[in-house]
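dumping this here so i dont lose it
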């Protein structure tokens, strides 16, 4: 399940643009929105007020973890538990991650998925980010959303879904379904933002996961792709 585009709100498009520009990402402004390119994916942010924080993860090439870690810590603040800034994923994920402080309170993540092919790079740069790997989506009923996605052929990934957390998709792209107000790991204070989110992906038909929370096919028209709410 490749995430082609994610449409979500931010309190400040200028803050988002400045942050990702500092990382070296390609930024495009279009009226009241800003679009950030992450490899094969795009993130489009539109200004609106809301409470809480978003979570996004970006896939890095397998074999580049140490170089990516060094590159990242020179550009932003890493999030930690104690003095630990590197985290192994669940055994079923075969991954490891670095979390970092994003703009507008975002909890961002670089993730190396060992099931993907190894790719060597001389020195890590923003161009080596492969895609948006995960996007957090607050839903009123996690298990009901899992059922909706399963019926469309998008299955749970890794650990068994619970009433407040489920990863759904595959190694190429995941929706992280969570209940509003839950803390984003590895913090205990940044709470899940309950906002409209639209994810453009390889689904064949549009799906609603809650008020303003939707999955849209890449073939949808611009009007159909627009965030709800």
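and the seq i came up w/
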């Amino acid at each position: 399940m490749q995430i082609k585009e994610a449409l979500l709100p931010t309190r400040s498009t200028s803050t988002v643009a400045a942050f990702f520009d500092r990382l070296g990402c390609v930024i495009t402004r279009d009226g009241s929105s800003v679009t950030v390119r992450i490899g094969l994916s795009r993130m489009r942010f539109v200004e609106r007020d809301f409470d809480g924080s978003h979570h996004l993860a970006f896939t890095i090439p397998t074999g580049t973890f140490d170089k990516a870690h060094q590159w990242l810590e020179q550009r932003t603040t890493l999030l930690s538990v104690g003095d630990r800034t590197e985290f192994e994923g669940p055994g079923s994920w075969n991954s490891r991650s670095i979390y970092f402080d994003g703009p507008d309170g975002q909890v961002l993540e670089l993730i190396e998925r060992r099931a993907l092919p190894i790719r060597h790079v001389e020195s890590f740069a923003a161009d080596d980010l492969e895609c948006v790997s995960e996007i957090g989506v607050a839903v009123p009923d996690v298990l009901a959303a899992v059922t909706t996605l399963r019926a469309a052929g998008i299955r749970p990934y890794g650990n068994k879904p619970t009433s407040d957390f489920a990863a759904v998709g595959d190694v190429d792209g995941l929706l992280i379904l969570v209940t509003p107000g839950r803390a984003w790991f590895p913090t205990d204070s940044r709470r899940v933002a309950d906002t409209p989110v639209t994810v453009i992906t390889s689904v064949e038909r549009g799906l609603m996961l809650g008020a303003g929370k939707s999955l849209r096919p890449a073939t949808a028209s611009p009007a159909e792709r627009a965030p709800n709410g």
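Helices lie at 13-23, 65-73, 142-151, 222-225.
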